[in-house]
Amino acid sequence: MRDQNDRTAQRMSITADRLLLFGATGDLAQRMLLPSLCALHSDGLLSPDLRIIGTARSEMTTAEYRDFAREALEKYLPDHRRGGVAEFLNRLSYIAVDATTPEGYDTLAEEVGSYDKGLAIFLSTAPSLFEPTIDGLVHAGLTKGNVRIGLEKPLGTDLASSEEINDAVAKAFSEDRIFRIDHYLGKETVQNLLALRFANLILEPVWNAKYIEHVQITVGETVGLESRVAYYDDSGALRDMVQNHMLQLLALVAMEPPTSFDATAVRDEKVKVLRALRPISKEESVTGQYRAGAVDGTSVPGYDEELGKDSDTETFVALKAHVDNWRWKGVPFYMRTGKRLPERVTEIVVQFRCIPHSIFEGRGATTQPNRLVIGIQPEENVQLSMMAKVPGLDREGIRLRQIPLDIAMPDAFTGSVRRIAYERLLLDLVEGDQTLFVRRDEVEAQWEWIDAIRDLWTQEDITPKPYGAGTWGPSAAIALTERDGVTWHDE
Questions:
Q1: Among this protein's residues, is 245 annotated catalytic?
Q2: Angstrom distance (rounded) from CA 354 to CA 367
Q3: What element of type H or E holds 147?
Q4: What is the CATH number of domain 185-419+430-482?
Q5: Residue 10's pLDDT is what?
Q6: How many other C-beta atoms lie within 10 A of the C-beta of residue 312?
Q7: Could you tell me what percentage of the chain is helix, strand and coil, using 3-state DSSP and rounding each to the nearest 5?
Q8: Which of 80, 183, 245, 489 is flagged as catalytic?
Q9: What is the spatial distance between Cα 96 and Cα 2, in angstroms, rounded to a whole number?
Q10: Which of 60, 123, 347, 447 is most exposed, with the fewest beta carbons within 10 Å of its own?
Q11: Beta strand pairing status for 371-377 and 381-389?
């Protein structure tokens, strides 16, 4: 079995010489995919023989698509990373295909041509198009040989629809050829969480319930619906953010040390955490929807006003989760996410317990527990709060103060290129490395937990509580932590 796995890994590690982009004219392609690929090209990280074929429903020639791509690069790619744009554009070609019908896929196959080293497919389309797209690829013979496929979310709206999508993809691709994308896993600081835990002896021995009191995970957005009106109202914050990004962050914080840094070992440990999540009770969830208010000094409308109709879709969720295993027994994981919050921030806060005995109490000094804050966006940084003595002669008693030890990642690694998440993920897709992609059993474990929460809300008639835009959600979110004597990190 091990020899078979080694042969599979060797086969999939072959760098593809064709990259096929579905949804090549969409917003994601303009903002992320084309700029990421051009940046990789400029840095010499793409094989010279890699050809990129774009496809979408829009009718245009290859020349017109290259002009379209050039405009996207001028708009979204920083000036200092635009080296070699002309050469990059020469890699591109385009074929218009209606994904709902088999016609056009043969022409697409002709454009792709022979892929001697492999074909990587990036599928960024509506979930309803997944199955007809897979059928079209099978019809055109574009699933044979060394072909791997990357799937952009959303992958369903619940466990049943997710299984339906995964079954459709599995008809043509084995699990070792399916790359489910969660772009948070491509962020440098998210990956650095693994380095902090497993490359530093000072942290891992205290990374457990004996020393950690609680963990907070916050994903805050200042924006409202923007261009995602139809999708978001059908989804809501729980399915849009918690089901994927936040549960992946939780899994990385809580996972056991994998035997090695490879796709199988890392994902084996993550799925154990997801399966150990205790079902949420009524008192452990808060849901909200923003009303009119002000964000960054600018007045903004409420959710219903932006949507143009009444809706009971949640734009804010706060949860108190538990991982029922030996390492995390009794440690709450507080999670919150929402739109129209005061700050755009994604961070993980690890709150350590108080020291068991303070030798300074008799001298009038108080101590505070240590806290590790891992900032993911907008700034990538790591901050560890420590107690230190305030300089002085101490005639009126010793004074202690909590001081931060800051590591700003861009400053710590001056000269290193700061890459957006899709650069790494696209390169891993082309090269066949699944480590930072989500496995099917992970997705299904996530949906199982999320579906139970939605069922709870339905059974208990839990509806979103209003909160003003520019605030940190409903007051019930504050009470969720304060009942345990815990304060959210922003307060």
A1: yes
A2: 8
A3: strand 147-151
A4: 3.30.360.10
A5: 41
A6: 12
A7: 40, 20, 40
A8: 245
A9: 43
A10: 60
A11: antiparallel
| Residue partners of 380: CB distance under 8 A and separation at least 6 | 187, 188, 189, 192, 408, 409, 410
Residue 469: how many other CB atoms lie within 10 Å: 23
Query: For residue 124, what are the CA distances in angstroms to 152, 156, 353?
Result: 5, 13, 44
Contact between 333 and 254 under an 8 Å Cβ cutoff? The reply is yes
Q: How far is it, in rounded angstroms, from Cα 290 to Cα 306? A: 11
Domain spans in the chain, listed from the N-terminal domain onward: 2-180, 185-419+430-482
Q: How far apart are the C-alpha atoms of 116 and 215, rounded to whole Å? A: 48
pTM: 0.90
Spatial distance between the Cα atoms of 451 and 449, rounded to a whole number of angstroms:
6
User: Which residues contact residue 191 at a Cβ distance below 8 angstroms, ignoring those fewer than 6 apart?
Assistant: 185, 436
Cβ–Cβ < 8 Å for 92, 69: yes
Across the chain, which has 491 residues, the per-10-residue mean pLDDT values are 42 78 93 94 92 95 96 88 87 93 90 92 87 93 94 89 93 95 85 88 93 97 82 89 95 95 93 97 96 92 91 96 97 97 95 85 74 89 83 71 74 59 92 93 96 97 95 96 93 55
The residue among 167, 114, 105 whose CA lies nearest residue 137 is 105
- The confidence score (pLDDT) of residue 381 equals 86
- In terms of Cα–Cα distance, which of 31, 78, 12 is closest to 435? 12
Q: How far apart are CA 185 and CA 251, in angstroms?
A: 11
**Quick one: which H or E segment has residue 87?**
helix 85-89
- Reference 429, options 107, 147, 139, 55; nearest CA is 147
* pLDDT on residue 186: 85
State whether CATH 3.40.50.720 applies to domain 2-180.
yes
Q: Give the per-residue pLDDT at 287.
A: 97
Whose CA is closest to 33, among 434, 435, 424? 424
The stretches of 97-237 forming alpha helices (DSSP H) are 105-112, 130-139, 159-170, 188-198, 229-237
Strands across the sheet containing 316-322 = 400-408, 381-389, 371-377, 345-352, 212-220, 332-338, 316-322, 285-291, 465-468
Nearest C-alpha neighbor of 173 from the set 201, 149, 207: 149
Count of H-run helices and E-run strands, the chain: 17, 17
Same fold, 2-180 and 185-419+430-482: no
**Token duo for residue 208:** 């457990």
Residue 258 pLDDT: 94
φ/ψ bin of 340: left (φ > 0), alpha (ψ from -120 to 50), beta (otherwise): left
